[in-house]
Amino acid sequence: MYGLIMAGGSGTRLWPHSRSGRPKQFLRLSGEQTMLQETARRVLPLISYERLLVVTGPGYADLVREQLPELPAENIIVEPSGRGTAPAVGLGALHVRRRDPDGVMAVLSADHSVERPDLFCRQLAVGETMARQGYLVTLGITPAAPATGYGYIEGGELIYTADDERVFRVRRFVEKPDLQRAQEYLAAGGFFWNAGMFVWSAESILCELARFEPLLAQGLALINCHLHTPRAAEVIERVWPEIPNVAIDTAVMERTSHAVVIPSDIGWSDVGDWAALSQLLPQDDNGNTVVGSCVQIDTRNSLIYGNGRVVATIGVEDLVIVDTHDVLLICPRERIQDVKTMVAEIRKRHAALA
Amino acid sequence: MYGLIMAGGSGTRLWPHSRSGRPKQFLRLSGEQTMLQETARRVLPLISYERLLVVTGPGYADLVREQLPELPAENIIVEPSGRGTAPAVGLGALHVRRRDPDGVMAVLSADHSVERPDLFCRQLAVGETMARQGYLVTLGITPAAPATGYGYIEGGELIYTADDERVFRVRRFVEKPDLQRAQEYLAAGGFFWNAGMFVWSAESILCELARFEPLLAQGLALINCHLHTPRAAEVIERVWPEIPNVAIDTAVMERTSHAVVIPSDIGWSDVGDWAALSQLLPQDDNGNTVVGSCVQIDTRNSLIYGNGRVVATIGVEDLVIVDTHDVLLICPRERIQDVKTMVAEIRKRHAALA
């Protein structure tokens, strides 16, 4: 099996620790390794570096090389600009199919966290089995709460069981719901979070793209003709701005009849904001998550993400404090979603810090 | 008139901006100049540098020299250790009397702020007139609120009027009151905050010290015998640890019958904590006091005292944020008095940062 790590994102929700020049996937957040490194090592039992491809933007290729020195140079695929996940997946699929016409690929996000990598690998292996039969496989995360921040996948008919893993047809993909609907999904069961993790053969996904996104498929075909030729870079630069900007979910998964879902309870997190990160890190007796050096007096339920400097807190509750060498963020937990607004503001007034 | 600036304090209440190695008087807080420099320049219309003496500790003499280069070297008086204000005042008085047996001195704190320096100088001049008649003069601050953090002076008989200034006999000095009593003082009128600002002749204060603190006076007499001799340093080092550690208020002012008070409405502040400092600095429309660079979203009634780094605040209210190069303090306004506790904690765990 091949792996395609999607490492082009430039998310802002962990600002100021993450910056446009070094987004989340290139940061050490909870461990010794960066999220990209963790993503690669997590699937190493299944996918060697030779078969691991990374799609990223031109500004990040050096970071990928630096953080994954084991990766062969030709496995770094640079897309000229971010045009949604469908073009990135399609480009990756061209590379996989060129190496192995029957190649199966797992699509992985570079900036997600997984607590149970063994289970994750077992499920990817089941996914590979299904993908070789032509299915488009998605891992659907067993919901732990009525989250409104993710799309949901509704499972249908059970079509396969292997060991403890079950595979269901996908009944439908559902957009991010409101709270009431999310609560209904949780109560009903059979609904899973769409975490954007897929397994399919390169041929299958390219066929479905051709069917549902013919303009995108034409662009990819043109790129494919010149892949690994001296004109490759020139062609992709010309084609890329013209192709549709679309997510693989919308382009294919919501439309295809071949989608299946493997319910997945792997301790997944997209580490989507500071509150999510604080749940991944150990807490002290007062409910505080502390990275770095902190002296506390009456401090509770706060995230203190330091950067060398000593953080001294008195009477602080439910606060997020993120210290970096050039920016300091202070925000109550309940306002953490407004970090995006702050980054927009910072972009206007201190562009170098965004 | 001579001036004696008391610059030996090592207060902790503006930590982490102030440190034991560089306490408040040596910091720029609200202006271009440090508080020591402001103190000296404030009285310059009355007291030239030649007649200005500074008492400080051995660790701070270099800072005084650096910040007041106009001061003659012999005007820096180093006390071997802090033993309360009475010994420091006595030591200063020895120097003044040596230069001028009839010398009058104004005793000034190096770390207080005064909004109306012209009025302040006029009142010091009235004080000088009274001091030449043998009175021990104190400027009593007209209370703006029922503060419980200061001692109070109760005025008695009106004994002198000059221009708009009035001078009263002191009926009594009162210890820091509780809130109810402070409210009574404010309602009654005729009570003033004891700000530790005095004017007296060197001879008068040395006489009163001899009367009320004979042990201290003996020590001072010994030092006086060797003042400006080669043995001066050795004698003061030997005498100093043995003399009583006592404040001039307790030693003299609460006991003498020669005390008078000039009611003083000079916009005085001892800048005793971060809340006090924020009242001295301009506020924006949201009630925030910002020093340095700050990007705010929904931020109110907060003090953001920066240090180069951009401080980004979202949904922050009534918070004090003090950023320095090696420590960051976060504390609600209402807990600001606990900074002292924090400093004690820091002293244990990160002594270099205290």
What does this structure look like?
- The structure is a homodimer of 354-residue chains.
- Chain A is α/β, with parallel strands linked by helices.
- The first copy, chain A, has helices at 35-42, 61-67, 85-99, 117-131, 179-188, 202-212, 214-225, 232-239, 248-253, 274-280, 339-349; strands at residues 2-6, 52-56, 76-78, 104-109, 113-114, 136-141, 152-162, 165-174, 191-201, 259-264, 268-269, 289-291, 294-297, 303-305, 310-314, 319-323, 327-332.
- In chain A, the strands form four sheets. Chain A has a five-stranded mixed β-barrel with strand order 6-9-7-8-10. A four-stranded mixed beta sheet of chain A has the order 12-14-16-17, with helices on one face. A two-stranded antiparallel ribbon of chain A has the order 5-11.
- The longest helix of chain A is centred in the N-terminal third of the chain and has 15 residues, at 85-99.
- The mean pLDDT of chain A is 96.
- At the A-B interface, β15, β16, β17 and α11 of A face β15, β16, β17 and α11 of B.
- β15 of chain A pairs parallel with β17 (327-332) of chain B, so a sheet runs across the interface.
